[in-house]
Amino acid sequence: MSFDSFSDFLAMGGHGLYVWLSYGIALAVIVINLVGPVMARKQLLADLLRRLRREGNN
Fold it and tell me: Please, what is the Cα angle at 29 between 26 and 34, to 5 degrees?
């Protein structure tokens, strides 16, 4: 499929909203799948460090 202009490309033959929302949702899922475990690991390490400090003082 070829497009005459950039606006035609964005419109995707009248299906632009569906196409670009699909790409956006897919990108959001990928980012969440990449960032989520990193954030969970940071939280787990902080919790473990806090627990070690608390148990070390007793």
Answer: 125
Q: What is the distance between the alpha carbons of residues 27 and 4, in angstroms, rounded to a whole number?
A: 27
Per the prediction, the chain carries an average pLDDT of 92
Mean pLDDT of 18-37: 97
Using a cut of 0.85, tell me whether the model's pTM lies above it: no
Q: Does residue 1 belong to any structural domain of this protein? A: no
- Whole domain around residue 30: which residue ranges? 6-56
What does the alpha-carbon distance between residue 48 and residue 46 come to, in Å, rounded to a whole number? 5
In this structure, what are the phi and psi dihedrals at residue 5, rounded to the nearest 5 degrees? Answer: -150, 170
Domain-embedded: residue 35: yes
